Amino acid sequence: MLRNVAELRSEGAAEQVPSSSGEPGPEGAALATLVRSVENALAQLAQLDGQGPALQGPELERISRILQDFRAQLRASLVGLEGVISRAAVGAARSSVRIRTVAGHMEEVHRSVETLAESTRQVQGGADQVARAATEAAGLAAQVERMTGEGRQITAEALAAIRRLRDQSQAMAERLGQLVERMREITQVSGVIESIAAQTKLLALNAAIEAARAGVHGRGFAVVADEVRKLAEGTAKRAREIGGLVQAIRTELEPSQQLIREAVEQAREGAGRAEAAGAALEAIDRLARETAGHMQDIASAVEEQNAATESVFEALRDTVGRIRSVKEETENVSRETFTLSALTEEAYGYLGPFRTGTIFHRALALARELDRRCRAVFEEAIDQGRISLESVLELRYTEIKGAAVRRLARLFDVSRVPPQGFTPPKYSTAYDAVVDEALQRHMDEILGREPKLIFALVIDLNTYAPIHNSIYCKDWTGVPEKDLVGNRIKRFFHDQGVLVRGARVGLGPAALRLPNVASREDFLRAGCDLREPPGGSQDFLVQTYARDTGAVTAALTIPFFVKGHRYGAVLLGWTDDGSR
């Protein structure tokens, strides 16, 4: 088509005939008019959602038909291209969610395997300790076996000595008993001798009496009788002394006999205990041998288990490395997917000047209209002195909780809100209560004009929304699942990274490196130009992202300024299913 237009312009130029005065003739003037008409028609080609250029006059019918055909083909191509871009963005968004999910799972698996590897390493260390302890226990058991063997030998020797002592003590007791018995017999004999001596003395006395009676003839007999008497007295005296000595010996021997009897009994008991100790040592020796055998078996089993654990640990370490590689590859794919998303965003930028009438261009036009309306709300409140420009731009927030919750009763029922506040938290600013209801009216009207839109609002540079559409401003129920979806006003939306990028559209990479909640001074220190460019900003950003539910949403943002200073962005979203 462009070639046909060029051919017509060439043909017209060839037919232009100058007059003799050097000025274009009638044919030249007609051609100039034709060229201007064509230029105007070409200028209208970008407006592909209207009727298109119409050229008047029979001489322009051919050009008009060519331009109409070209316009139709261009619109079809751009709409098709936008559809391809949209589908690519949807695919990239869904892939991004899947990759994030896989990356999350891989991270969990990576942590789990690392934990398992660490546990295996600890088990291996414990097994080493058990093996060493088992080996040491086996050595100790062998040492106990040796010591009990020595103890058994010593006990056997002690038992033999005790038995010999017992036998000797028993023999001594028997001999001492015999000695005591002999002493008793000696005492009895001494008594007999003493009795005989007494009788002999009595006989000597009688003999002396008889000798006295005999006179001179009995004098010799008297001497014999006297000597017999003296001998009897000496014998009785010696018998008494022997009896006393024997009695003294008996008296001294009786305790010794008792002690010897006790010693014999103790020796008997000691022998019994020594025998019991020997039996115990023999049992200990047997148990020590068995324990040594068991400990050796345990040590061998632990060594085998340790070798198996080492193999498992090596396998886990290899698995950790492989998972780390997969995780890194997943991150690479995620970055490449992000690059693809960035390319689709860039492609939307090239489609911006051509109005094809698709949801993208309709949303872009509505965003710019919402920008004008919301700017007027802010600036009117500032001009009337109800709020200050500084309070609008300062990016300072106060969490709404306690008594402050009642201030939101003008927007929705707060009777079920706990004293500790909202989840997720809601925040107020120095200006939001002044402008929120007026902003909501304009946002709801824009939302109602496009059936495919699911939200239309204004957010600041930190994704704070002072108000949301009324469908997201429902009464607070206290049920988290309902309130998270049904009441989304006066909160941040930086949980979605795409909205942080959208809120800071046009500010460059430095703005994206700042925290999700940054101060205005942070933006200025990062080198961000927060002033409105002359003639206004034509920047916009279309991002396609998938939620956890699988629904794919396209978010369009354009910079939003108040009194020539950057506030944040106008945000519109629609469900991106690839349709127009």
From TrEMBL:
InterPro entries: MCPsignal_dom (IPR004089). The lineage of its organism: Bacteria, Bacillati, Bacillota, Clostridia, Eubacteriales. PROSITE patterns: CHEMOTAXIS_TRANSDUC_2. SUPFAM superfamilies: Methyl-accepting chemotaxis protein (MCP) signaling domain. Keywords: Transducer. This is Methyl-accepting transducer domain-containing protein. Residues 1-28 are annotated as: Disordered. Residues 84-320 form the Methyl-accepting transducer domain.
